[in-house]
């Protein structure tokens, strides 16, 4: 398998996890050739840390004919601009979540990629991990009977201003993990209703390591979002994302006619999966062979392999956009007081497993 050449744009905190895997875990299909950041020193530091041969400006990376896929790890507000620039330079794109901030931006990227015969996709790729792939197989093989309902809950604490200003609160930041898991397990959402609130309009910086520890700031983006969704297959689900909790409390359950499936944390690639049959005891299920650890960048590797084989990549732009459409629908519904019919649809991506030989990705 030829190694697809990758350029990483955005060398902040999350880039360390990506580069660890892109450089050291997936070298059979990926070669990272350049790092770039608006703060050039950050790009140089990451390149030195992971042995990437070139650190450069964002403009130079975009102009580099060697780079085939741009991995866009910039702040959410810059996702559209950087992805659009990469597509304009003839490069495939993989972007961190959220896909974009608005529907118009997301649709423009999908149209631009399709019109240029380029690939676009993005995070989260945790649904490719052994945990959620095990859940997918249990559902598809009939272990829970017919899925009827689902519950998703993400409760965490957001004590910093940039959580709301830059990451736009829990629905945009953590919601994609849970919504992507639900869509890949159950199919697309057809309509949604939501209630969004700001329980505490004024908050304090709670991190003692933060230079502004103790200072107050105004919360202008909803910090508690609750929604009800109807799926094309008839399943209904609820989702709650909270950023006022004292800790991190993930939960994802699928309720079927024959059993209840408790999924692993959608923010991870592995973790325990439990099945409780009707009238039986709850038991932990063995995970399928696959990626169980912190493997951010797995979606990039799948895209690289897909480019060579000609098959669809799984963490697709259409999937990313559908998840964004759901998030926006929940907010739109809260403002209007009505259900919102979703116009976007996406097919569930094909199941994913690690190669039995451990040498790569199973086609």
Overall shape: globular
CA distance, first residue to last residue: 12 Å
CATH architecture of the largest domain: 2-Layer Sandwich
Uncertain parts? none
Hey, roughly how much beta strand do the residues contain? Answer: 25-35%
Helix/strand order, N-terminal first = EHEHEHEHEHEHEHHHEEEEEEEEEHHE
Number of helices: 11
How many domain regions?
Answer: 2
CATH class of the largest domain: Alpha Beta
CATH superfamily of the largest domain: Dihydrodipicolinate Reductase, domain 2
What topology emerges from the helices and strands here?
Layout: E1 4-9, H1 13-24, E2 30-36, H2 40-50, E3 55-56, H3 58-63, E4 69-72, H4 79-88, E5 92-95, H5 103-115, E6 120-122, H6 130-140, E7 147-157, H7 161-165, H8 169-173, H9 175-186, E8 189-197, E9 202-204, E10 216-218, E11 224-231, E12 236-242, E13 244-256, E14 259-262, E15 274-277, E16 283-284, H10 298-309, H11 317-336, E17 340-341
Parallel strand pairs: 1-2, 1-4, 2-3, 4-5, 5-6, 7-12
Antiparallel strand pairs: 7-13, 8-11, 8-17, 9-10, 11-12, 13-14, 14-15, 15-16
């Amino acid at each position: 398998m030829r190694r697809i050449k990758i350029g990483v744009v955005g060398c902040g905190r999350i880039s360390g996890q990506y580069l660890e895997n892109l450089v050291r875990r997936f070298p059979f299909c990926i070669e990272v050739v350049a790092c770039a950041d608006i703060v050039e020193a950050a790009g140089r530091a990451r390149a030195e840390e992971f042995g990437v041969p070139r650190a450069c400006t964002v403009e130079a990376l975009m102009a580099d004919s060697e780079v085939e896929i741009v991995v866009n790890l910039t702040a959410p507000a810059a996702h559209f601009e950087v992805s659009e620039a990469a597509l304009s330079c003839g490069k495939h794109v993989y972007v961190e979540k959220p896909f974009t901030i608005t529907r118009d931006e997301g649709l423009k990227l999908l149209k631009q990629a399709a019109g240029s015969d380029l690939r676009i996709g993005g995070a989260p790729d945790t649904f490719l991990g052994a945990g959620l792939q095990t859940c997918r197989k249990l559902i598809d093989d009939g272990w829970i009977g017919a899925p009827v309902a689902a519950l998703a809950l993400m409760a965490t604490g957001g004590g910093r201003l940039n959580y709301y200003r830059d990451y736009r609160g829990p629905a945009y930041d953590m919601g994609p993990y849970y919504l992507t898991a639900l869509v890949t397990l159950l199919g697309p959402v057809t309509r949604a209703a939501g209630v969004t609130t700001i329980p505490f309009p004024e908050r304090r910086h709670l991190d003692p390591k933060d230079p502004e520890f103790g200072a107050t700031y105004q919360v202008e983006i909803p910090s508690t979002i609750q929604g009800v969704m109807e799926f094309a297959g008839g399943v209904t689900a609820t989702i709650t994302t909270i950023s006022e909790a004292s800790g991190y409390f993930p939960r994802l359950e699928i309720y079927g006619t024959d059993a209840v499936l408790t999924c692993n944390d959608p923010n991870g690639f592995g973790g325990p999966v439990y099945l409780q049959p009707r009238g039986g005891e709850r038991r932990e299920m063995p995970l399928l062979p696959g990626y169980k650890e912190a493997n951010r960048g797995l979606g990039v590797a799948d895209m690289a392999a897909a480019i060579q084989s000609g098959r669809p990549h799984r963490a697709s732009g259409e999937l990313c956009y559908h998840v964004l459409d759901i998030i926006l629908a929940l907010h739109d519904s809260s403002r209007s007081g009505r259900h919102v019919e979703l116009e976007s649809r996406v097919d569930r991506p094909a199941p994913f497993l690690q190669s039995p030989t451990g040498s790569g990705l199973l086609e």
